[in-house]
């Protein structure tokens, strides 16, 4: 990635910092933009303060860049909030951050990326492909993000490649807030087929691949980085074993 310029939105902590670090270690010039500076600066990563929910500020930021080769739309997130516990306006802010913000940044970066024949990596979530109780607006936004990326990949080809990195559960500095401390993290990790949560570096490596020449013919794709996904619940409830002659095979239930 030497000679390339990469922008990582929300690239100051957690998954975003892992992505920014991966590109910096690959030799790119990396710009991380967010509202607040990082608590711990990542070597080789420059920080620029940008409120990504302010379209004029976003357009001004991208207009000021001399070039751009990769945009990683990582900024996003949500608090735990059941649908009936907030009004529609509150949920709409979650959708704005996780869907409208990546659209705004992508449009602002379009001319740069078209000129460099660059790529966009959307950071999606497994929440966009399954029920997401407690974060329904977030899941809906991530589902929309994957569709937006697929449409962009068609409209903006062949100059710009667009892909979605579908992240599963990631072990970050705030994991204890979601899973309840070391015991909770260990318990949740056991539900992942690979036996652990992802690290930010795992997500960073996948983002680097999607943006690299190794993925030159990959566009409009969704790459799942989730350690094998979730074990089907029926496997824990089923009593029939493999030695039972009448046990239905996968795909032939009923």
UniProtKB/TrEMBL annotation:
Entry's InterPro entries?
KR_dom, NAD(P)-bd_dom_sf, Sc_DH/Rdtase_CS, SDR_fam
Q: Which PROSITE patterns match?
A: ADH_SHORT (PS00061)
Pfam families xrefs: adh_short_C2 (PF13561)
The answer to whether keyword Iron applies is: no
Q: Which UniProt keywords apply?
A: Oxidoreductase
Ranges for domain Ketoreductase: 4-185
- Give the similarity note: Belongs to the short-chain dehydrogenases/reductases (SDR) family.
- Full protein name: SDR family oxidoreductase
